[in-house]
Specification:
Helices cover 69% and strands 0% of the residues. It is mostly helical. α2 packs across α7, α7 runs parallel beside α9 and α8 crosses α15.
């Protein structure tokens, strides 16, 4: 993946000095503490607790979804431990792109950054579709006007700056977390283990049973939806340049968010299906609400409360992933991998074009109303990026063992290798579920790769944090 350290100019703005170039591309530093970072990590993902994960029960039954969720949780925990180390080594807004850039050069960084971008640009479109579904059940309205309102309102808040946006996001996330706690408490008295296995076994599945009604292949098919329980938590390091004391706050944010999300995922999977029945939830557009209705009947305050606050959970993830995609585009654009105009910031130090343009694309994609297919495209980008990020951890451990690491991954390369094996399996699982959607996602990725090979590799910009780190690394090797 190594490529020559190619370009050094800003082709469209050659007359602009380096100082002026970076002055127009500054984020607001020191605005995000470790508690907000934990909130950010949970907010990225919390919508996955309310809807989306349950489609994995349709693919693999409760047993298949349980195994897939356990494997996904292990993969993400190892991934977060590995990223915690690298984020303290390179606290820049590029996140996974920065790590791969340091390990494998410009092409490796670009491959990782664009895979992450596919994940973050597509996920809000899927969440917008789910928000529409919740609005329909609550207010009887759905469609393009709901999707447009989501993008317009929350992009507008992000344009006001990171500190303000993340504080609002944190408050919304707390409300959504309260709803999950209420749901969990309401399900406990009605748990019955037999309800987990109420989907009859398929006659054709290899290894089909009450535990695995679709056989062993169902475990594979459930993996992309198990990932929805955790998708995007790895975006916490994208706030590195805006974090207070990143050497301490970034590991706390990543690991703290992951532990909270794992607890929620397992409790919801066990108690939701155990109280209402796996068959009730497998194709539901609002599984928590349907579970409460099944157990307590219609027109109860519990179902109404979780329905309303479930909408807040979806909004929290939608809101926070806008932050994630804007920072990923900001970093790639600032370094010249994408058009440099995308990294311009406004008076509030918010990258306005990096917020607005993907939002327009996401809104158009949400009009398809194919939430499950959009999940699979997002998971494709995510799992590709995980493979590359974990390879970066291994490469940097081997090639730069003496480099300062304020935080070290417990288990070192063994930890990242475990996650790497699971990430490769997850890439394959996406193909198993829906080859057509997998190839669509791969086609989008190929377009990004072609852009680098034929254009942007000749127009990279000197002086970005990621490029400077690579230059120092190259100079040390020469010495």
């Amino acid at each position: 993946m190594n490529q020559p350290e190619t370009a050094s100019v800003i082709s469209s703005s050659a007359e602009v000095s380096s100082a002026e170039y970076f002055a127009q591309r500054q984020l607001k530093q020191g605005t995000v503490g470790w508690l907000l970072l934990i909130g950010l990590g949970v907010a990225y993902v919390i919508s996955g607790d309310f809807v989306g994960w349950n489609f994995g029960i349709a693919q693999g039954g409760w047993g298949g979804m349980f195994i897939a969720t356990a494997l996904a949780a292990l993969m993400y925990l190892c991934l977060c431990l590995s990223m915690s180390e690298m984020s303290t080594m390179m606290p820049t807004a590029g996140g996974g792109y920065s790590f791969a850039r340091a390990a494998f050069g410009p092409f490796g960084g670009y491959l990782t950054g664009t895979a992450i971008l596919i994940e973050y640009a597509i996920a809000p479109a899927a969440i917008a579709v789910f928000i529409g579904g919740y609005c329909e059940s609550l207010f009887g309205i759905n469609g393009w006007m709901i999707y447009l309102a989501c993008y317009a309102i929350f992009m507008g808040i992000h344009l006001k700056g990171a500190g303000e946006a993340l504080k609002i996001m944190f408050a919304i996330t707390l409300v959504a977390a309260v709803a999950l706690v209420v749901f969990i408490g309401a399900m406990i008295p009605h748990f019955n283990a037999q309800n987990l296995f109420d989907i009859p076994p398929a006659s054709t599945g290899v290894g089909a049973s009450l535990f695995l009604p679709h056989g062993y292949l169902g475990i594979w098919a459930a993996v992309p939806f198990a990932i929805w329980f955790f998708l995007a938590v790895e975006g916490v390091p994208l706030a590195a340049e805006e974090a207070k004391d990143p050497a301490k706050s970034l590991p706390r944010g990543l690991i703290g968010a992951m532990l909270i999300l794992t607890a929620f995922a397992m409790l919801i999977l066990f108690l939701g299906a155990g109280a209402a029945g796996a068959s009730t939830l497998q194709n539901s557009g609002a599984p928590l609400v349907d579970a409460l209705v099944k157990v307590y009947g219609t027109n109860t305050w519990l179902a109404t409360f979780v329905n309303f606050v479930g909408l807040a959970g979806l909004i929290a993830s939608f809101f926070s992933i806008i932050y994630a995609y804007s920072r990923q585009i900001f970093a790639l654009s600032r370094a010249g991998y994408l058009p440099t105009s995308l990294s311009l910031t406004n008076k509030n130090k918010a990258p306005y074009l990096a917020i607005i343009i993907p939002g327009i694309i996401g809104f158009l994609l949400s009009l398809t109303k194919e939430g499950d297919s959009l999940i699979l495209i997002a998971v494709f980008g995510a799992t590709i990026s995980y493979v590359l990020i974990l390879l970066s951890h291994i490469k940097l451990r081997l090639s730069k063992p003496d480099m300062p690491r304020p935080y070290k991954t417990p288990g070192g390369i063994i930890t990242s290798s475990i996650a790497l094996v699971l990430a490769v399996a997850a890439v394959i699982a996406g193909f198993v579920v829906n080859p057509k959607v997998w190839f669509i996602a791969a086609g989008i990725y190929v377009v990004f790769i072609a852009y680098f090979l034929f254009y942007s590799r000749y127009h990279l910009v000197k002086g970005t944090p990621e490029e400077e780190f690579a230059n120092i690394k190259a100079a040390e090797q020469e010495l």
